[in-house]
Amino acid sequence: MEFFEVIQRRRSSRQYTGEAVSKETLEKILDAAMASPVARARYEDMHLTVVTDKSLLDAIGENTRQKTGRDGDPLYGAPLMVLISVRPAGDAPQNNEFSSAAMIAHNMALTATALGLGSCDIWGAIALANQNPELVARFGLPERFVATCAVVIGATNEPMPVREIDRQKIATRFIE
Ligand SMILES: Cc1cc2nc3c(=O)[nH]c(=O)nc-3n(C[C@H](O)[C@H](O)[C@H](O)COP(=O)(O)O)c2cc1C
């Protein structure tokens, strides 16, 4: 798929067929993560957790439902979640560390689109997971790493058409 077509087709998919993501596809998605920019090239302070264990995906959903009182699956039944964690320089992740995680997330999401798969950024459910030490323990993160966000990826029946770009979407000022 041509680069700008990928940009125009990418959207947040919130419905998945549940079909497993193949090993080859997962490798491409992880390659995209590795190719991502990271502030001060601190790749050693980033960590990925590839989760396909349905019981853990369900536990993240259950934790969100308990904490929000809302129904539904915050991971939308996706068969794969890649969790992005950071080892903060200080006590808690700061702007450049969250931003590095977001860059990695977006590289993976764009790759999923290019491969015809749906994807969605997941920050809410991960923030809520961080309030549950038992759930965090199940992530098995290396010492001092903190989960920041995730991307769910999988086959979807939701259409991903080329979307027209709305040039007014983000207010833009030109200083010339
Ligand atoms: C930092 C960030 C956090 C997000 N967190 C969530 C989330 O927790 N759950 C969710 O369903 N979508 C989440 N999204 C997706 C946005 O809601 C979505 O990108 C936005 O509504 C625009 O829609 P589009 O992705 O289809 O273009 C997040 C997106 C970003 C960039």
Name the descriptors:
176 residues; alpha+beta; NADH Oxidase; 6 helices; 15% strand; binds flavin mononucleotide
In short:
This protein is of the alpha+beta class and 176 residues long. It is built from six helices and four strands, in the order ααβαβαβααβ.
Helix content class:
25-40%
How do the helices and strands follow one another from N- to C-terminus?
A: HHEHEHEHHE
> What strand order characterises the main sheet?
1-2-4-3
Let me know the average pLDDT: 98
| Spatial extent as radius of gyration | 17 Å
Largest pleated sheet: 4 strands, antiparallel
Provide the CATH architecture: 3-Layer(aba) Sandwich
CATH H-level superfamily: NADH Oxidase
**How many DSSP H or I helices?**
6
Shape: globular
- What distance lies between the first and last C-alpha atoms, to the nearest angstrom? 35 Å
User: What's the number of domains?
Assistant: 1
Residue stretches low in confidence (pLDDT < 50, at least 5 long) are none
User: Tally of extended strands?
Assistant: 4
> What's the level 1 CATH class?
Alpha Beta
Strand content: 15-25%
**Class computed from helices, strands and strand pairing:** alpha+beta
* Ligands (ions, cofactors included): flavin mononucleotide
